[in-house]
Write a structure and sequence with these properties.
4-stranded antiparallel beta sheet; 14 strands; 17 helices
Length: about 500
Amino acid sequence: MVYSGSTAVTQQERLVHAKPISLHDASALLSVGEVWRLSEQQRSSAKFTSAMQSHDHDKQKASSIKLSQLKPKVIEARLTVINNSPVWQIEDDAGRHYALSALNGDIQNISTDSALQISKTWIAKEATPQVIKVVDKDLGTRMMMFDSYRPFIKVAIGDSAGTELDISSKTGEVVVVTTQLQRILAYSGEWLHYFRFLDSLGFSDYRKPILTWTSFTACFAVLVGLIVGWLRWRPGWFGTRIYNNGQVQPYRESWSKWHFWLGLTGGIITLTWILSGFLVNNPWEIFTKAKFSQQQLLQFQGGPLSSELLATLPEAILPKDMQTVELLMRTIGGQSFVRAYAAIGKSLAIGRHKQEEKEKSLLEAAQRLLPKAKIKDYVLITDYDDFYYPNHRKSLTERPLPVLRVNFNDSADHRVYIDPTEGRVLLKIDHSRRAYRWLFFALHNWDLGVLYSRPLWDVWMVIWSLIGLILSMTSLYIGWRRMKVSIKNCLARSGYQNKIKRLTNC
């Protein structure tokens, strides 16, 4: 788990592998509003089909009625190129994603053949991609943030690293990239650590409570072991007693000695590790949710795209002096937000907005997230703090600087971090999440002080992991040995031992 890393495709990775939007053919590109109008019948048909796939007949009927009456609106649109064809990647106010042709508004159906063509932008010329299977969810795509992109076409690109791509059949975007080594690390680490094998066995509904109670039991077992170890430790300090043989512990056999000393030196770390790991699934909803809801994020934006943005033709706003691979349209704080991106990471804001106006719109957007609270203060920070920081899981691209930090004066003492460049909410903090940061991220992932940096963090994690592994092995061996003696004595007392011997001889 220390070395598997995140496999989700970042914005930077997506842009690097994107194809440029042709300025020569820009006059043929339709506006967002036009493709949304042209695709209405296809989208309605797709929604109805999706509703009819429900297992419950009554829910099917209710869903189809609601969907037929629903008039979704565009909240974000990105102009990209998929298989040499310009496509509007659109998200509506219900969180659904569509890939609509920028030439005629048709919904783009990503077939396996199309997925193979898409994969070629991610591979070397000598590699030969192959479709493995179509999957709805696996270890790499289990997260809820991928729900609107399912199902995925899994493609092996045929390189020496054994790289596989998960391509959305709805948008044609590559959302997850894994190498063979990453998959081995994931299955030997995260798959076991979070009991993901229960999902494969059909017990996904029971996985979380099983994980919670197993962790709780482990906490109790480690605590008992610590108490017993401390009671049997006689260091002889300040003239206190030691054991008759001059030792500070009563054990003579090597397994017991190893277990005692490892438990004494690493037991506290083991307890904090298991206790903080017990909190990872937020048992019994002790802590508040880590993110704002879809509805709250829509309120942050101030609503769907304006009629002005919907009617804007790409030809009018595509930069002439930059090779654009993606054009983004969004509304932030009631103001239009348009940005062009190049493959090299360069981006350009389209339109002229004063810094004061931009800051004002972001603060208004932040206020809509918590309408019952008032903004206490805000600051544009250029360095990380105790809650907003990069580490081995969050890269610099996921934790950009500068960032707008907004504090509220409500009872939960909310704090929101907003990316002023992208106009996105990056992090939400309140009293509950502050406690979670120190109880979980500090005690479990060791996001503390000098341990932020690598390789110091790696050394710390590997040493304590090895101590925990040996402590567990000695526990299992001593426990198994004791259990065999107990079973043997029990059988002897009950008279079954002689019967078993006779049956064995027969």
